Amino acid sequence: EFVSHLTVPTILDYIGVHSYEGIETTNTVNFRSDMKENPKGMHVLVVDDICDTGATLKWTKEHLGKKEPASLTSVVMLDKKERRRVDVDPEWAGWVIPNKFVVGYGLDF
Questions:
Q1: Does residue 44 contact residue 72 with C-beta atoms inside 8 Å?
Q2: Is residue 70 within 8 Å of residue 42, measured between CB atoms?
Q3: Angstrom distance (rounded) from CA 64 to CA 61
Q4: Active site includes 34?
Q5: 8 A C-beta contact, residue 57 and residue 68
Q6: Looking at 34, 48, 52, 79, which residue is catalytic?
Q7: How far is residue 66's CA from residue 6's CA, in Å, rounded to a whole number?
Q8: Contact indicator for 52, 85 with CB cutoff of 8 Å
Q9: Backbone phi, psi, residue 6, to 5°
Q10: What is the pTM of this model?
Q11: pLDDT, tens digit (0-9, with 9 covering 90-100), for 8-67
């Protein structure tokens, strides 16, 4: 849904990263697959559904930062600041929500 509203030329690429099994955190970030494009010198926006412990977002930003993008920012649909375990915050969030289990449109579960 988000991408359909972009009005600037955009290259879409994906990485596969997760830190949950079902509804519980594994406390470990699992890397599945990397980007196909080389983001060196590009402006990179990390888009994710939810930021709670922050582990996945922090790992992702560190991983992508090593690829030398021109800029690296992040946006999440939902931000659970109460659950944060690491020092990371998305630059933008659609909604800040309380520490409740959520299911719905745009979420991985």
A1: yes
A2: yes
A3: 5
A4: no
A5: no
A6: 52
A7: 26
A8: no
A9: -70, 140
A10: 0.87
A11: 999 999 999 887 776 677 778 889 999 999 999 999 999 999 999 999 999 999 999 999
